[in-house]
Fold each of these.
Amino acid sequence: MILVMNYKASENDINKAVKQLEEWGAKTTISKGEKKTVIGIIGDKKALLSKPLNTLSGVEEVLEVSAPYKLASKEFQEERSIVDVNGVKLGGSHKCIIAGPCSVDTEEYVMQTAIAVKKAGATMFRGGAFKPRTSPYTFQGLEEDGLKLLAQARAETGLPIVTELMSERDIDVVYKYTDVIQIGARNMQNFPLLKEIGKLDKPVILKNGIASTVKEHLMSAEYIMSEGLKDVILCLRGVRSYETAMRNVLDVNLVPYLQKLTHLPIIVDPSHAAGKREFVSSLGYVGMAAGADGLIVEVHPNPSCALSDGDQALLPKDFDYLMDKLSKLESWNQEEWYDMDTNK
Ligand code: PEP
Ligand code: MN
């Protein structure tokens, strides 16, 4: 349920409405748009059924949100969300390219990569210090030592860092170093973990699960948002299908589709979709052309020595090429299309 405030509603009206709703036992969240403010009511609303919600001062209408992912839905917030990571913006008209190694390995490689991707125009740096590996006998990540190397790369380049959190056990240490928390495909439906990160104040990149549906992806975003965090970025990293030619199938058709359902920023991960270096750049290009707000791409200066996903790591020169191509690309704007389309 949402309370849409009228354009004349004052700050005082909004605060009073929130206070009253909370006194009636509701949990609320606010979305302030350019044109209107919406108060979202989360959780059990039984207690509110008999209350005179539309008589609260400043309330224009009380609406039921039909989507089950309420806070993530366009019904709750029409305008596209913009996530601000230490001044680097993502979403709306702000495009953001995140690049770096799959796993943090040596200081030399990490620094070399960070400097190279920054020079090419990347706006954030990625690297895994806790790695979800199919085999328990392969490299599992450098853990805190890896996080320290990421912090060193940030100090050198100024790029905010993105790293994966796999378990509730590691929240404190990951929180201490990172700017953006990545939730990987394997944890998309780890609900206790999603709830815990929703209580924090760092933006989250939520990847789709390997066989998840759009609705499941959005419901997982909702788990995070229902705890209070607004800065959730959806990431499409491909899904498993009967087609085994590439590592995954990049469901790039979901970029415009998701934009219709949600205000959350959407990025594409062409690396885990392609699985092979030679296909990564074209998938990234297609993702941006489809209107994604950004990419997350794996880059390594010496892929044969990478401790994970070397086959899909772009060399810095490949990344330069991709960035050059992207700089000339005019990406699709689905919202402009909706505006033109009288049947929307
Ligand atoms: C990664 O980003 O290195 C990773 C493990 O991704 P995913 O969760 O998409 O497999
Ligand atoms: Mn990887």
Note: The chain has eleven helices and 14 strands.
Amino acid sequence: MGVHRCRKCAADSVINMPQHRLALCAEHFMEWVEKSTLDFIEKHRMFEPEDRVLVAVSGGKDSLSLWRILSKLGFHADGLYIDLGIDAGCAYSKRSAEYVRKFARTVSPGVELHVLDLSSVYGRAVPEMAGRRAGGRKKLCSVCGLVKRHEMNRVARELGYQVIVTGHNLDDEAAVLFGNTLRWDVEYLVRQAPVLPADDLGLVKRAKPLARFYERETAAYAIVSNIDYIQDECPFSKGATSLRLKEVLNSMENGSPGTKLQFYYSFLRARQKGIFPGYDRPALQACEKCGQATGIPGLCAFCRLTAPEKATSPANCG
Ligand code: AMP
Ligand code: ZN
Ligand code: ZN
């Protein structure tokens, strides 16, 4: 800080980004983040100005920044907070909800916040849904991922949103990519993209407009824009594996700035050219209960999980 001058106006910089050979002051950094987000949205055809966008907000820095950025860019973006019922002695979900509610009051008038409380809709929240599973081997995190994906989609569909956006950043995306690559998990690799199209089985389009930003960039954006966000990570979700993958990538990045970005971008380019022909998505069908797409006939993983009796394996955490 201070050592580097803003490239645009020569004031003291608030951030130096060696991977872009770019240092910027607060004002020009915000402008750069917003403009780069718009470029990324347009490049990947995430959504159009007339679309109604549903931002999945967790109360963390990424998703609240995303909501702010989209509003500043003039998109019609409403929020969705899912109360997962995670307490773990620190009232995690309740506190997250407070950050989201407080933030929602600062977004443009006319913007809505939808709050979905799992306990009131399904009679139980994520810890109970995970805990009742036979053997309990699957981590709470995979149930949580499944529930979030299903419920975001259901709400977006019922309320007529054209696209769901999440706050995943480059560190998240690169770590998932790295993990999938170590296992050569091609089924997941072909599905990893900044934008996934809608399908005719009621899957709503999904996009990750911040996937090109390093975590320290989204954190810096939240701070310079005075966004008050929950700083704790979910007490359960961050598995040792994803943290280790992030550590490895960070140590590579320190030695060679830009590694993460290049890893991700080169993958996207290769993916666009179809690196894995023959690995098309398996045939899907509509869940008998909720109508959302599922690989297996009958009930989808979510409906099996929330069925009154006997649950079977949910899908993996995405
Ligand atoms: P995570 O899986 O916790 O790393 O979060 C990834 C993204 O999912 C966040 O940036 C949000 O967009 C979304 N998200 C996570 N938790 C929630 C939640 N409780 N309610 C709504 N969206 C969420
Ligand atoms: Zn400047
Ligand atoms: Zn279902």
Note: The chain has one domain: 30-305.
